[in-house]
Amino acid sequence: MTLSSPTSTGPAPETAETAQVGVLHGAGYVGGECIRLLAAHPHATLHAVTSRTFADQPIGAAHPSLQGQVDHTFAAPSDVNLEALDALLVAAEHGQSMQVVPEILEAGFDGPIVDLSADFRFSDPAIYPEWFDVEHPAPELLDEAVYGLPEWNDQIAGASLVANPGCYATGIALALALPARNDVPFTAHVTALTGASGSGATPSAATHFPDRADNVRPYKVLDHQHTPEILQVLGEHVTLDFVPASGPWTRGIWGTAQIEWSGDVDPDAVTAWYEDAYGEAPCVRCSSDGLPSLQPTVDTPFCDLGWTTDGSVLVVGFALDNLLKGAASQAVQNLNRALGLPEPAGLLPRSVLPTP
Amino acid sequence: MTLSSPTSTGPAPETAETAQVGVLHGAGYVGGECIRLLAAHPHATLHAVTSRTFADQPIGAAHPSLQGQVDHTFAAPSDVNLEALDALLVAAEHGQSMQVVPEILEAGFDGPIVDLSADFRFSDPAIYPEWFDVEHPAPELLDEAVYGLPEWNDQIAGASLVANPGCYATGIALALALPARNDVPFTAHVTALTGASGSGATPSAATHFPDRADNVRPYKVLDHQHTPEILQVLGEHVTLDFVPASGPWTRGIWGTAQIEWSGDVDPDAVTAWYEDAYGEAPCVRCSSDGLPSLQPTVDTPFCDLGWTTDGSVLVVGFALDNLLKGAASQAVQNLNRALGLPEPAGLLPRSVLPTP
Amino acid sequence: MTLSSPTSTGPAPETAETAQVGVLHGAGYVGGECIRLLAAHPHATLHAVTSRTFADQPIGAAHPSLQGQVDHTFAAPSDVNLEALDALLVAAEHGQSMQVVPEILEAGFDGPIVDLSADFRFSDPAIYPEWFDVEHPAPELLDEAVYGLPEWNDQIAGASLVANPGCYATGIALALALPARNDVPFTAHVTALTGASGSGATPSAATHFPDRADNVRPYKVLDHQHTPEILQVLGEHVTLDFVPASGPWTRGIWGTAQIEWSGDVDPDAVTAWYEDAYGEAPCVRCSSDGLPSLQPTVDTPFCDLGWTTDGSVLVVGFALDNLLKGAASQAVQNLNRALGLPEPAGLLPRSVLPTP
Amino acid sequence: MTLSSPTSTGPAPETAETAQVGVLHGAGYVGGECIRLLAAHPHATLHAVTSRTFADQPIGAAHPSLQGQVDHTFAAPSDVNLEALDALLVAAEHGQSMQVVPEILEAGFDGPIVDLSADFRFSDPAIYPEWFDVEHPAPELLDEAVYGLPEWNDQIAGASLVANPGCYATGIALALALPARNDVPFTAHVTALTGASGSGATPSAATHFPDRADNVRPYKVLDHQHTPEILQVLGEHVTLDFVPASGPWTRGIWGTAQIEWSGDVDPDAVTAWYEDAYGEAPCVRCSSDGLPSLQPTVDTPFCDLGWTTDGSVLVVGFALDNLLKGAASQAVQNLNRALGLPEPAGLLPRSVLPTP
């Protein structure tokens, strides 16, 4: 992918009818957010949700807060009638989607598929054995798949397969895309913390309450699999030193990028970079007042960005909800783009939607 | 108020037009939730929001997460044009509403007012000097005001002044209304914990992080001002021993009521009480499987209820979001009722709304 | 066990030498606290700690905060030389101790053993199949074992086998022992919340951070295995209705007991009950000012008690650290008693220790 | 101050008698920790604690957890008999100590004073108007005061006035002192988060629970007053870009330093730097296995350090309890040094104390 100019809210909807959407593997945290967003979507209807574990049980069995809000029952994956669907969100684990999506395409499904795993994010198949310890079974699809960072990719409208970005990758790429556009090599020193929902719904040592609460735990230091994903977006002239860490909260990613720039940094120029690029982007909020806090982004579809400089170092902060802008709401953004609906439909109140 | 049969989702909307709604004193946590709900309401338009402190500033100045979601600016209270409004939500502090609401009525405002303070909850004016240390300046309005517990009051439709219940009172009254309907005297031993948002947006000793986190702190033991409010709903044949406590979270109330019943408790009869009463209530979720947890109710408009018995004691659990079913979403329920809109409009996805 | 008068801090130490103490199964949270307390004990030396999982690894491998504070290495259970030990703390899981302790006794170990599991708490062997789903393999030891609630049992000094009480049981029994001493039947309605460390160091659904944080989850309502333990202390004239719940913190139990008393409750008499009973108890703090908060007890060896009444209902609150007064520090209290050391040695600064 | 070789645990105590120590302004969080540590100190006696607010009240009035552990009553500052004291810990706010300490010295007090504020940390008086907005009233004392970073200053033994370092400064200086010793200019990009206890015991917007929980909030970005303090330790050849942030916990600082090194980084050489320097330091724990987590340092007197490199960037992580190694336990380390006691006396169990 090459950085294009960031686009805004997309074209007006082509049709007033609602799209019938299915969510595959909808029992995890990301799946639950997809269900919640689609249930309230003005131009989409949640048609079916699958889960092997919860097949034939109500949605509330996996997502108690959705009881009384959604009437559906989980279907077994084999019971979904693809012909009734206009689009699919696939919330399978990494490594599963690369099996599932080719089968769906072979079955003749022709609506857009937004895949939330890492399985179609990389154009280079060699990344998979190197970073994910697996040979990709359908490398020909990697050319076809479109990387779904909607602020920076204008190929999403009409795409048949969209690879939804990773949560850290979304925040870091949105923060660094502007300096990267200058084509001047630089190093970005990033430290970022993520919430426990990023580890999924299955208990593990990383999410054991007595060890997670009141703690910060670094992991995969200088070795996180989002690094190649981010560099694929930004270009190889960027060096990324990335320290990820677990934070003691459930939702949200907060991080800082310290950029050593060759030559002086002009604060006004930096502000112009960001405001020009994201001024019309409905799901990015910018502030030249300083770095963002985490909390205002939680339960919202926004990535918040802010920056400051002392003239030599440029510090950019980013914050987002890992389950929303880092996963489910970005998938709905991509779904809207792919279907020709207003980009923030189902994510923001109508009153702030752009007029078509 | 006398317990009527709980009603369900209200009549169909009389009109397809959207109501113009104002939020007075909208800078606090409850006000923020009112704004958020109204911004997404399918049959209402957020027309104006007032704040003395934040007058002429954008909504995001008080509510950072709403930046980008709501375009409004806070108005000074004196700058609101009441004639442009069809309805009002008043989120003033206790003691302020009793000053503000009479002025609004004197100015000729004739749409429904939902007041979220305690100032119009009591039919007996003597409660105010006893429990709130203030003489009520407009006691004649106490007769006019309708207590807005929508599951138990069928006088809300068409009311001009609705007193929105307290947060604890909502949970405890919904939990105990069924045993209370039998007109058999009983004692309910209630222990309930509330989140820090219940103390409002102004820092205080009760919300100081080092003292609130990892702590439970009882307060106003056997002396909470919601006790007379609850007994006004349930009747004086109920004895309520209420221990409220501060819990280490931001949103939500969780509690248990242990009821010593004269004679044996028939589990099936109890289940029938609750399911008959709340089966059609859109914002109450019942479970005969056991007591509810807190988390599934947070960020939802539901009060969850569950019960269990060993044949002699009846234990009823309740959980709700203090800012939503305990305040703002219940206010919207009342607004909907008063305006003749579907009761859960703006609170639940259309797909689960009852068919008109 | 029959309620004796609560005793205070025990006799003066018989000897200035330090006791050599072993901790069996020391890799869990309770084991870690035992290690920490013994390492700082003025009259005891931590001689050996066992763990099958961590055998031959340093203590810090299981307890990172103890790295640099304790020099020991975990030993395999079979490698401990019992002859070198004067006393044992056994921190095995329920069901393990009933296998391990008889073997130790058969091997001729004659120092005091404090067992922290439930395996020797009940004098009636029939409790084990009913509540723990296991036949006790050594029922004859149940007569020999002494229940280690030091404030209410004067048989601990010189005991060879002490059964350390459960965490909830400690708080509830200390709170209700005074009303129970009157031999008047009453019902106590108890709601209590516990921290995630009570579920142990192994991840599980109950301790999964996204589900535990910002949540309260009731469990084993009216069916907790501490109920028969508490009634064994208090007597069968007490009826206990107990609702336990999981709270969103790591350490500590907080609860309320609402007691319906036959006849009026005299506040001064109640205060006298508690102050007379616990005035000299070094690890119970009483307050007639109201119910206790949780936080002041965390990381301390105290159970805090407070009470209030409106003349008819008596409300008693209790709070304690489940890993300390609910487990490890109480075990050290019992160890001290059994060895003839000052009861709070190793738990409180010397300056507040009672003069021998 | 110039970096000397880090020293270890200090000389053996000169006397078996215990020092009489006073804590001035002991009602805050740091004061509470000083009290707790001194109460358990084997070679010191807590003689007096002052507080204007809590004068004549028991210690437990300000520090509920210390009730039952400490028998003292707060004294008014004017009621302290300095002649009875061998040493003082001053836990006053920044700006207060520069008034109080000169008065104490004028009164002829000749024992060591460890001041925990910033008021004597800088040798250059010009720092005070620039960073603290105050002219220093006793600049002559700045020459006399010794900067109390015990791992890097061998002037503490016998000092009369020790300036205890800041909490961030302790962690960052310990992390960066090794690269700084090479006298090669480098830039360190630091992001660090601190707990709410760092803001003190008075409620404020920064510690309001609903805004602090589940949040990260950056503040004083590239403008924190610990920056000149750190550079005074490291030397002006180091450039420090420091982003501090508020984390959602009560105790502890966790941070990363990313260092751009001129030339390649040899991992083994780095490990040797740290292990050689801190191998004998009782309150620094090093790991070449990776960056430290926060939790193992909380409630301990340690600063944990770890590092990793990919050959070009060097990442050093640090973690410490802001109230202990960042304040009170470091003050006790300094007190021990000044008095000639073993450095970790009162901080670590005897069993791991170095043999004199």
CATH top level class name of the largest domain in chain A: Alpha Beta
- Which structural class do the helices and strands of chain A define? alpha/beta
By CATH, the topology of the largest domain in chain A is Rossmann fold
Strand content of chain A: 15-25%
Number of strands of chain A: 13
Main β-sheet, spatial strand arrangement of chain A: 8-9-7-10-13-12-11
Distance between the termini of chain A: 28 Å
By CATH, the superfamily of the largest domain in chain A comes out as: NAD(P)-binding Rossmann-like Domain
Q: Estimate nothing, just give the exact number of structural domains of chain A.
A: 2
Low-confidence stretches of chain A: 7-15
- Element-by-element helix/strand order of chain A: EHEHEHEHHEEHEHEHEEHEEEH
What is the annotated CATH architecture of the largest domain in chain A? 3-Layer(aba) Sandwich
Q: How many distinct helices of chain A? A: 10
The overall average pLDDT of chain A, rounded, is 93
Largest sheet of chain A: 7 strands, mixed
Tell me the overall shape of chain A. Answer: globular
Radius of gyration of chain A equals: 20 Å
